[in-house]
Amino acid sequence: MGTSSTKLVCLAVSAFLLASVGCSATRTPIRVGILHSMSGTMAISEAAVANAETMAIDEINAAGGINGRRVEAVIVDGKSDAATFAAEAERLITRENVCTVFGCWTSASRRTVVPVFEKYDHLLVYPLQYEGLEQSPNVVYTGAAPNQQIIPAVKWCSDNIGKRFFLVGSDYVFPRTANAIIRDQITAMGGEIVGEEYLLLGSRDADAVVRKIVETKPAVILNTINGDSNISFFRSLRAAGITPDKIPTMSFSLAEDELRTLDVANMVGDFAAWNYFQSIQSEGNREFVRRFKEKFGANRTTDDPVEAGYIGVKLWAQAVAEAGTDDVRTIREHIRRQSLEAPSGIVYVDPETQHTWKVVRIGRIRPDGQFDIVWNSESPIRPIPFPVYRSRAQWNELLTGLNAGWGGAWANPGKK
Amino acid sequence: MTERRSPETSTAPFFSRRSLAGRLLWWFLCISLLPLGVATWVTYATTDAAVRRSVAENLRAIAEAKADQIEAFARESKKGVSAISRSPELARALEAYGGALAGGVSSPKYVEVDRANRPFLSSYTESAGYPDLYLLTPNGDLVFEVKAGAEVGTNFLTGPNRGSQLAKVFDRAKTLLETEISDFEYSSRTGSHVAYIAAPVYQGGKVIGVVAFRLSNAAIAAIVNNYTGLGRTGETLVGSRAGDHITFVAPTRHDPRAGFSRKIRIGGASGEALQRAVRGMRGGGAFTDYRNVESVGAWSYLPSLRWGMVVKIDADEAFAPLASYRRATLILGVLLVVAVIGVAGFLARSIAEPLVRLTRAAALISGGDLKQRVPESGQDEIGELSRAFNRMTADLSELYETIEEKVRTRTRELQDANEQLEATREQAEAANRAKSTFLANMSHELRTPLNAVIGYSEMLQEEAEDTGQEAMIPDLQKINSAGKHLLELINAVLDLSKIEAGKMDVYYETAEVGGLLRGVAGIVEPLAAKNRNRFEVICPADIGDLRADVTKVRQTLLNLLSNAFKFTHEGTVTLEARREPAGKAESIVFHVRDTGIGMTPEQQAKVFEEFSQADASTTRKYGGTGLGLSISRKFCRMMGGDIVLTSEEGTGSTFTVTLPADGKPVEESVELPEAAIALKAGPGSTVLVIDDDESARDLMVRHLSKDGFSVVTAASGDDGLRLAREMKPDVITLDVMMPRTDGWTVLAALKADPALAAIPVVMTTMVDNRTLGYALGVSEYLTKPIDRSRLSEVLEKFRRDGRDFTVLIVDDSPSIREMTRRTLEKEACRVLEAENGRRALEMLENGLPDLILLDLMMPEMDGFEFVEETRRNETWRGIPIVVVTAKDVTEDDLRRLGDAARAIVSKGDDQVEHLLAQIRTLSARTGQTAEE
């Protein structure tokens, strides 16, 4: 004893012990679940959302995690099947002990899954535009409510294209509900609905519907078809000679990603309404698009669900940082009022509805598969999950009616 | 403990790095200050973090509260307006007003509608708490306003007010079918900033118009400017974005005029928090505010109003408690550190000081002061140590005193013992010298009468033969043989004594073996006839030379042969010599074989022992001394060889002498003083120059020094002897002719001293002729009694053919003279006698002999003096002198003396080189001899 090196070693050891004791408590990673269709009919669209959410988590970890803790994602496949979604959600909550789940796309999957989250008083961050008419305390909705997409778009069409509307959609809860909202709105505006047709989810035969469109000659087609049925629909539409310059289509479920699967040349001039387009000209968005392409491929594209998935994770991370814990209830409290400067503009989690204030945009399809933005709300719009035309009770009545009519499902199961 | 060292007190400060006190202090400080420091730092860090966190939380809480308040205000306001917008009365009123406006504001229809509807509209407005209400038709006409003014009837989409906030909010409400709140703008009419809330009005599911209320910013300003929980400097900022800058939409605490006038640029350095808030971000932390003051705050976005809000407080105020805490901690810490250092120092000192005292005391004690004591305070280990130390020192002190006494006693004892030893040594040396002198004298004293007995008996024998008195002859023979026997005995005893005294030297010579054998054979031949024995000599012609002490070899062979003849009757005695290679070195082997009585094994075992013959009867029967074989063996062993006996009783005996052909002395045979052994030959050796002539001395010194010798000079023989004894030089040069002690006397003295005898002496003299110089010294030596054949040899050397050979005998002993005369006369010489040197010189006056036989030891001018005298004289110089002496015990000494004086060189200049060469040779030989 007595050499300075011995002293130094003693000091270092004690300091290290102190430090490690102090820090050991909070070093465990934060676990989250990512629940999307990685296989099945929805995979082609939904996988991109899972990508965006993963990218957001990677960025958080790269910046040192949340309060020094790494975020660990458990990625699970919903297989485009609502029941699988519910089962996997339960597993994520109970077995994997995640503190939050980012997931779902179709309203069917969401509606099946929400009771699970309510049962365990957990938290789901849902990134898709949807029909609204829902406000669960266990869900944070980062996609557009109807008033943040459909209503402005319909108004814009009415003002800029015409007042004769043809409604076409897939036969499940979203298009059905959306069209109910649209119907109320168009009535209020003094417009006219000349047709309302539904294709079963996954249906490839749109000829009958197209024939009806040809017959009724609307000014604009309001399209709520989801999934690859869009391919068949537009093929039939174009085959029947209906082009964007004759009768434009305003689609509510068609984004840049879906355009990749369609014949874009035939789509130029049609419209879509979203909160986010890849072509948004802001510094923040350019960076976001660059990072996404760098990570997943230059041929990939960002779109609204991708951006909504991304900002959902970022808002959640802010909540966890403020909460100082990964207890789901505390996170839920802190996720309200979170706001950030997203690629799509300012987003803000409304404390009352747990929906997100978002900017609304309308875009026209370009030959390169991107959109020219023709209208922009500039400031973020407050989300109103339950449109004012009917009361909540009335809306719930509509929903239950649909649900019962489909035998407890949220999509038309189809004729057997 | 005799050396005195200065006490090793450290001159370094008490608390230096190496001292105990220093280390204790250091460790005390480490142990106390380090944890203290760590604890303080940890506490401070924790407190700091806690304070910061609480400040942040407080600000966030205030921000949340205010945001909620503002949002709630906006929401409630909107709800109120939405509620009113659903009122059917309102819808009807709007419709009515819309229809009535066609005629103008002052048209009777309008007035009527107004009269019908204004009251309830006003009360609505009032009860709702708004300052004003507006009704607009879908196309943008303002059809009604509670505080009606000029704008009523104008179109807000196309008219002068089309850019106003009311126009914008009207359009949004109509488009989004939502209750919307506008941005604030300055209203010149009210003189304040106002905003509008507009909601679409439905009837029958269709939009028939928009109702709008005006809103003042008072309520919001009240919320914003509530400073509860914000201390003295805390405030709330609210701003809205206008292009690339932000406008403050409410007054701030520090800038009451900020409302709607103060702007900050987006991207600028000041007002970072407000910039972030307006961009939609939410967060908290430290930043530089719009006043460029360091602040800490929480910022949020207010979506209803599209505002950014920052709740902030100056950093100084927020962290004031931290600053004071830090100050207090610092002061306390410093005080503590000082106190700890003080205490630690005191502690360290209290432990170390006694130890330092102990150390100093120990140092002083080791320096010699045994009276040192240390104070013995304390009951702890240090006190114990002090007491033990003092005890130890006392013991030590006592011990030393007694030791010194003991040492003194012991020293005295030792000195006494030494003195005794010295005395004993001197006694021993004296005894030794006495012994040597005895030996020398005994030799002379014993031999001289014996010589007389032997000589006279021989002469009488001859005369008896000559005169025919044969009856006397046996008796005379008996006398003769008795004398010879006695002489043999005496020689043998003296030899043996000399060997045992270590004074027997081996002197190596090279001799031709054949000649040696012939000489020996010649001597013993008469013995052969005595017992009718046959004598054979076998010697190969090419046997070559033998290098050994020839005299001893001869003596040994003679001894063996005489024994052989003695113990053989009518037999054969063979003397054989052979050269044998024995390993690396060749040997000469002599066999003396006889066919005599032989010996039993028991007899063989004893035969080499002193004074033992084969058995007791042998002496009676055969005579002899019993010493011969013992001496012979010692001689052979001295020369590196040996004698071996093989014998068989009744058959005969063979004695085999093996000697190295090229003999070198064995170590134990020659004992020279160590100083001599260390001397090396050649330059570097010391030469003692004894010469009375100063210039001669100088010359010698110069020449010798140049050659590398170190030279010591002596001007007289006495000095020379003294110096020789002191310095033991390697070589001595000796001037023969010196005044007081002549060279020869010095030479004799040198040779008499055992310590100096080995030093070669070069006699130097002023003689021209070298040959003559050589002859100046001792040409030959003869021992007494003079052996006749030897004498003949010598005479032969010097006799000249033809005429009479006159020999002058110079000897103090009449009997010797007599004997010698007789011998010489038999050799047909004319004999002259002189009893001492002086007489001899007188005789020389009268006539020159051909040869002088000279005894060296004579009274009244000894031989050396005589020689010197003769050499001085021109006429006498040429007479050869043969020294006859019995002064030394054996012939070897004489020979050495002869060697020592052999190199006689003249001192003339041209002979100096030769002199030096001789000295070198001699010194080299001394060196060689010493090393061998």
Number of strands of chain A: 15
Global Rg of chain B: 73 Å
Low-confidence stretches of chain B: 1-11, 666-682, 766-779, 887-912, 926-932
Percent range for β-strand residues of chain B: 15-25%
Name the CATH superfamily classification of the largest domain in chain A.
Response regulator
Count the helices of chain B. How many? 26
CATH topology of the largest domain in chain A: Rossmann fold
Structural class of chain B: alpha/beta
- Percent of residues in helices of chain B: 40-55%
Low-confidence runs of chain A (pLDDT<50, min 5 residues)?
none
Determine the mean pLDDT of chain B: 78
Biggest sheet character of chain B: 6 strands, antiparallel
Multimeric state of these chains?
A: heterodimer
Strand content of chain A: 15-25%
- The total count of helices of chain A amounts to 13
Average the pLDDT over all residues of chain A and give the rounded result: 90
List SSEs of chain A in N-to-C order.
HEHEHEHEEHEHEHEHEHEHHHEEEEEH
Domain count of chain A? 2
CATH class of the largest domain in chain A: Alpha Beta
Shape field of chain B: rod-shaped
Core attributes:
heterodimer; A: 416 residues; alpha/beta; Rossmann fold; 2 domains; 7-stranded mixed sheet; 5-stranded parallel sheet; 13 helices; elongated; B: 932 residues; 6-stranded antiparallel sheet; 26 helices; 29 strands; disordered N terminus; disordered C terminus
